[in-house]
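Possible regression after last week's pipeline update?

I re-ran a chain I had predicted before the update to compare outputs. Posting the input and the new output here so someone can diff against the archived version. Not blocking, just want to make sure nothing changed silently.
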Amino acid sequence: MKTLGVIPARYASTRFPAKPLVDIAGKLMIQRVYEQVQKASLMDSVIVATDDQRIFDAVKSFGGQVEMTAEDHKSGTDRCAEVAQRHSAFDLVVNIQGDEPFINPSQIDKVIHALMDYEGVDISTLAKVIEEKDEIFNPNVVKVVFGAMQQALYFSRNPIPFVRNAEKTNWMQNATFFKHIGLYGFRRNVLLQLAHLPQGQLEQIESLEQLRWLENGYSIAVGLTQEETFGIDTPNDLDKALDYLKGNKA
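New output (post-update):
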């Protein structure tokens, strides 16, 4: 099976305009993401998908592959689908967030493995055990529950599962909670189908795109990771990125 990695990258951002082109210790953020994706052993090719000429030129300048996409895409998934439509030689497509410059290549391989190992799975993603109590109740940390076969049952911004008959301060002693890591693998034919699905009620309520897929009967395999990830959402996060580099010079 051949795998294509697609990195959606937009110039416009409410909280951090021009984010893909920000300099992080001598390299553009989009370059750092691109180089990390290339290190994944199961990745055959990587393409940046953008709607902005400045990002297009920047990727070309460091020797990366990049394609222009429509400006009106509502999500990174739709942008990935446009690129995947042009590349029928690939069986699998991985959507990598363009604001995670230190994504671990092993996590990308785990997402790909989940699709290779389970023929009936349409989509794959990752989750990590929540270790900090505050994250359980933080709506910006998406939680996921899954079944015995590692297939997602539901994603929510609320704590799931709900621990009945226990004080919230003791929930972690009574249940294991998992946070969703926003990295997705798709079978190419499935990704092309997803781009045509209308928003469902659950997605609109929770503002979580993956609920649209569950609502329409697609299976999502959840691989487990112990690696922590972080994205660059605001200019203040750059300090966190530089601290990370200092502690991981290798």
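Follow-up from reviewer: compared with the archived run. The chain has a mean pLDDT of 93. Marking as no regression found.
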